Structures are given as C-alpha cells and as structure tokens.
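agent> Task received from the user: take the single chain below, predict its 3D structure, and emit structure tokens. No templates, no multimer pairing.
agent> Plan: (1) validate residues, (2) run structure prediction, (3) serialize to tokens, (4) report one or two observations.
agent> Step 1 OK, no nonstandard residues flagged.
tool_call: predict_structure(input=
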Amino acid sequence: MQLLVVDYISLIIFFSCWIGYTQFSRVKAKNTACLSRCLHQHRIHWMRQIFDTDIKVAHASLLANLERNVAFFASTTLLVLAGVLTLFTQVDNVKEVLSSIPISNDNNSLSIQVKLSLLALIFVMAFFQFTWSMRQYGFLNIMIGAAPFEPNTTKTHLLDYAKQMGVVQDQAGHAYNYGLRSYYFSLAAIGWFIHPLLFIFASLSVVYVLYYREFKSRALRAIVDGIESLDLEGFNKYGKKQGE
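)
tool_result: status=success, residues=244
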C-alpha cells in the first residue's frame, strides 16, 4: 500500500475516535444530562402540544425549518463529494501542492488516492445520514397530520402517541447529528494529507469539541434550565417516565 506504519496507526486512531465517541455518547446519555437527552424531553413536550389545536400550521412551519437545514447539508454533501471525486483525476497536482507545505509528509500517488478515498467514504456516509433524517422528518409530518384535536388530553393512548412522535423526531435529529459529525471528522481527515501526527491530533481535537458541546456547553445548561422552567406536572411526570 506504500503507506508508513504511522499512517496505519493514525488511521486506526481516527476510526477509534469516531466509533468510540459514538458508543461513549450513547452510553453516557442514558444517565447524564446531555443535548440529546434533554432535547428528547422538549420534543415530547412539543409533540404533546399537537393535540391542543386543530390548526397545525405553526408546527409544520417549525418542522419545515428543521428539514431545510438538513436539506442544505444533504445538497452540499453531494457538491463536496463531487469535488473529492474530481481530485482523483488531479492526483499529480495535489501531490505538487502538498510537497510545497514544509511539514508535509512524503506523499506518493497511491497514498493520496487512499486519503481521497477516505474523504469520499466519509461524505457518502454523511449523505446517507442527512437523507435518512429528511425522510424521518417526512414521517413525522404524516404523524402530526394524523394527530386528533384533543385539548388538555390525559388519555394514555394519546400520550403514548406523543411519545412515538417524539421518538421519530429524535431519530431524525440523531441522523442529522451523525451527518454533522461526519463533517467534523472529515476536517480531521484533511490533516492526514499533511502529516499523520497532525491527523491524530485533529482526530483527538474533534472528540474533545464534540464532548464539550454535547455534555458541557452553555447551550446544554440553558436547555436543562428550560426543562425546569416549564414546571408542568403532566410533562414532568411523562418526562420522568421517558428518562428510564
């Protein structure tokens, strides 16, 4: 493969950071306040409000804004992927540009193609995540359209229906988050073109940024305070049930 040992090590660390953080965040979210856990409570409360009005234009508008963000990244991902694939025909030019960087590692044509393949794989995965998120938002729109008008409902089956709508919205949000995470790690992968050690440092830096924003950010504290500020007995009781 004409790759150095440090290249293989950096690639292993890269995937370990990506896969490891994904699994870590899933486990930690079960018993720790984080963005995904707290937003789940807000989503259930939002879906509970669906039954209070027979005019759902406002809810549809909010969902349309969320879908618009996902659609933007989905279309952008295709453009980026096209650019990466185009670089396969310009390997010699890429090698010349990299050789002009003082700290750049020695790159041969095959190693550049391997690194471009990694970038292409990342953006293909991102595209699948964004499009799956878009589809799930479409499913949620259908469920909202099917929701009955039952103001101040305490019916168990309707509360369960709100929970299921919250789950669908959660899954759409997770897919969107995974797509964005692919963008973060693609920036780390660019460091591999310059030097494997930079690749390792960038991978670890991405994990730190993701962890801080998910579990320690000011936005998270505001969202947690927002849950406490709602102070709605029915919502808190229902939210506790979902916290498991």
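agent> Step 4: summary for the user.
Residues 232-244 have pLDDT under 50 and may be disordered.
agent> Done.
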